[in-house]
Specification:
With about 210 residues, this protein is α+β, with helices and mostly antiparallel strands. The protein is built from four helices and nine strands; from the N terminus they run βααβββββααβββ. It has one domain: 3-methyladenine DNA Glycosylase, Chain A (Roll). Strands 1, 2, 3, 4, 5, 6, 7, 8 and 9 form a nine-stranded antiparallel sheet that branches. The radius of gyration is 16 Å and the shape is globular. The chain starts with 9 loop residues before the first strand and ends in a 13-residue tail after the last strand. The chain binds a DNA duplex (13 and 13 nucleotides) through strand 4, strand 5, strand 6 and helix 4.
DNA sequence: CTGACGATTCACT
DNA sequence: GTGAATCGTCAGC
């Protein structure tokens, strides 16, 4: 996958997010571009790894059993906003909220391929040079793109954060579905094939997929 | 108010 | 492979 822009960015419309099949949306987000512009600085990355969290019936989801708390309330919003929360007291994890109001679906973005603003991403992460660790893993994605828990609930169709389609197509044969990462507590739901990756992309987290 | 813990990462053995 | 870092969230008292 080349880190080049195929054509002008087209901001994904709300209709993309408000559909009911979050697993399908997670798959379709592969190849799309996250664009953030904070304090006038733009950084972008192409999504290469996602995970679907399938609402009230998904034991791995924070919204399992329709649990509404101050933190999870944003997951119950109308699709098209960001759900960002703090994990292990350190990492800010970025999710895309989907479906309609009161149906708490979300897609966790686990890895992107850096495109624009790599110098700024290096500054934010304190890394010296570009390598796959810059945006591999959900904590690193947020750090590089400048996404913080303060951005939870923020619109994904505004100017500060949005997701764009530049016409790039990930070949269906290059997409693989696997179990989600770090959700062992979810019992049988941990086995669901809700994680999507672009095969052989160096920015995808976890161990290399066996053939 | 208190304590346990997490959709992780990184350094170290 | 193992363990520490680090703090907001949440259930329970």
């Amino acid at each position: 996958m080349k880190a080049t822009i195929v054509s002008p960015f087209n901001k994904l419309p709300l209709s993309f997010y408000r559909r009911s099949n979050v697993v399908k949306i997670a798959k379709e987000l592969l190849g799309k571009i996250i664009v953030t512009t904070f304090d006038g600085i733009t950084t972008t990355g192409r999504i290469v790894e996602t995970e679907a969290y399938n609402g009230a019936g998904d034991k791995a989801s924070h919204a399992y059993g329709n649990r509404r708390t101050n933190r999870t309330e944003v997951m119950f919003s109308e699709g098209g906003v960001a759900y960002v929360y703090l994990c292990y007291g350190i990492h800010h994890l970025f999710n895309v909220v989907t479906n309609v109001k009161d149906t708490p679906h979300a897609v966790l973005v686990r890895a992107v391929e850096p495109m624009i603003g790599i110098e700024q991403m290096l500054l934010r992460t304190g890394k010296r040079k570009l390598d796959s660790t810059l945006t591999k893993g959900p904590g690193n994605v947020s750090k590089a793109l400048g996404i913080h828990t303060r951005h939870t609930g923020r619109s994904l169709t505004g100017d500060e954060m949005f997701i764009a389609d530049d016409g790039y197509i990930v070949k269906p044969a290059a997409v693989a579905a696997t179990m989600r990462i770090g959700v062992d507590y979810a019992a049988e739901d941990a086995l669901l094939p809700y994680r999507f990756i672009v095969r052989d992309n160096p920015f995808v987290s976890g161990r290399k997929l066996k053939l």
